[in-house]
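#dry-run=false #mode=assembly
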Amino acid sequence: MKKISIYLFFAAIWVVASLVVTVFPAILTPVATALRVPLNETIAVFLTLMLVLTIIFLALIGREAGRSVAEHLL
Amino acid sequence: MVDREELLTASRREIYDSIPKIVVGVVIAFLIWLFGVLIFQPLARMLGDPLIFGLVGLGSLISAIILIAIVLIFIGIFKEVIDVTNAIAAYAAAVYSRKETSEEKLDRYQRAFRGIAYVLLAVILFLFLLPFIAGIIPVLAGIVLVILVIWAILVLFRSGRLFSGEIERWAADATRKIEAQREEMEREEEREE
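#status=ok
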């Protein structure tokens, strides 16, 4: 249960980060400048990364939930 | 020949073993679907608006990533679905047998139930993937639906034919019972006259 809360916390962080970047895209300007890529490409990569991380953490939450259900059944 | 009790026990064990795995897989797919449809797709659409940011291809990219994730999860639970289907088929075959079940009957039941399970899984998968297929190429959703319908009809038709022997036997039994009742009623009417 403790692991699930940690995973849930991380998933929430990725989602909130995506929301913040979408609402305030200028936040990523320093990153885009440092990487020497256009801002819109940086945002696209960032959002894709956040999506992949969210999917991974949701899968981890599911795995932990499945394990705890299996333990409960046994 | 397979022993009835043995078959029932093995089927029950397999169902208890596989169902939780399928439920967990479907719940993960549902969570990803929920986050995708309610959070990431609207965000991508917002950023894709030419008047705001103009990331035109981002919506398709996000949809494709979510689509791949859901497909991978469904591939993961496919084996479990087949196991459960085989177990249900074996259970059904054993329930309608007296002491032993023939291998041929078991195989026929398993093929028929597998067909039904394939159609159910494909329909559920299509419902999960619909917003993301439409997010990549809207026309593709319609094409996939047409192909799915034709394929489902063919598979269900084949599954129905596998049960035709049983259906014919049940129909013949029912007809015999009705005939016997009718003859009984006729005899009673004659006696009353």
